[in-house]
Amino acid sequence: MESLPDAIVQYILSHLSNARDVAVCNCVSKRWKEPLPYLKSLYFPRNSFDGYTGSDSPDIVIWKMLSSITCLEDLVVYSPFTSSGLASWLLLVHSSLKHLELRMDNITDYKACVDSPSKLDCVSAAKNLESLKLWGVLMANPPKWDVFKNLKSLEIVGARLEDSALSAALRACPKLTNLVLLGCEGVRSVSVELPHLEQCKLDFYGLGNCSLSLTCPKIELLEVQGCSWLRVRETTCLRKLLIANNSGRVYMVDFGKLSALESLSMRGVQWCWDAISKMLEWSSEVKHLYMKVEFTGDLESLLPFPEVDFVEFFNSHPKLQKFDIHGAMFAALCQKNSLKNVEQGFVIPCLEEVVVQVRSPLNAEQKMSTLESLLKYGKNLKTMVIRILQMKSNHSSSDDFFDEICRLRFMNRKIVRIE
């Protein structure tokens, strides 16, 4: 470093972002201190002030570092801070700041949430933000935010939210193209109306019984976990869709024709059959289908899937290239009548990869018939993965079934793999 020109040294050091590294460099020499005003990014890890013995509070230390920077664009603070500290920092850097990430640590502190100004309220000072990420948020009351005219990405991870507070926050971000809410609890009903939104990931923690209404005509990717009722009417651009409910049931879905959909994933313990059949009907153009739903049935009753006609299913999804089939859907395709009337010339034209999960030797003959039919009619099939999980039966039928699967693999060893 001593042999390099000053300009090169300043260029290298101006790319530092970890606050501890910056502080250490400031102590080396005046030459190493000069790049500080030109930093674009500053990151304070969780342990930034571990072992700190100075007289200034951490809030003041951060303020002093920020006051020395002329045009900061990215600020990440994981170390503890106060609302007054945050307000003072943003007053310094609000005009240039584009990306802000904060570990709020107030998810259980109701008093901090209602204090004025709260940490959430202080964020409104950074009016030119393009992305905002918040960790550990308690949003009991609507945040006092003006409109973020440039905000394109909003991520909230680990939060307790009230419906009205979340709605108010989203209204302040009309230009969002990316919305992520992960590990959020307390939500009962959500309405999202964002005309520019393209990617949306929603993970609601709790009983899995909340409802979602989405009006986003440009949406391309949608992942939803924990909703029982979903209404997404404008879906002409939707290419990837994942719906899961690990705690509750999926009762109702309303999507309309999914003409652009390429990837569909349906997961959960129980879905009403009407919801499943509608999703399969609307997604006729899908290329990748993942199904891991164990039961159907209304309310408390857990029922197996009704029979799904093998030929009709694949005729209805002619572009299907990859099929991940687990649980009740595989059993439904393996019922006795499914392959009785295969029309002459029937093929599965585009199917290249199948992943099947087998958990029981029940109806082994029908299951083997379905696996053999996938190989027979899938003229372009390149890979079939058979996963055998938790086959607990001690009956000899388990051994016989496993022997049949091994035989199938031996006869088609270039395609079939057992895991």
From TrEMBL:
It comes from Gossypium harknessii. InterPro entries: F-box_dom, FBL13/AtMIF1-like, LRR_dom_sf, LRR_FXL15/At3g58940/PEG3-like. SUPFAM superfamilies: RNI-like. Residues 92-199 form the F-box/LRR-repeat protein 15/At3g58940/PEG3-like LRR domain. Gene3D superfamilies: 1.20.1280.50, Ribonuclease Inhibitor. Pfam families: F-box-like, LRR_At5g56370. This is F-box domain-containing protein. Residues 2-34 form the F-box domain. PANTHER family: F-BOX/RNI SUPERFAMILY PROTEIN-RELATED (PTHR31900), FBD DOMAIN-CONTAINING PROTEIN (PTHR31900:SF27).
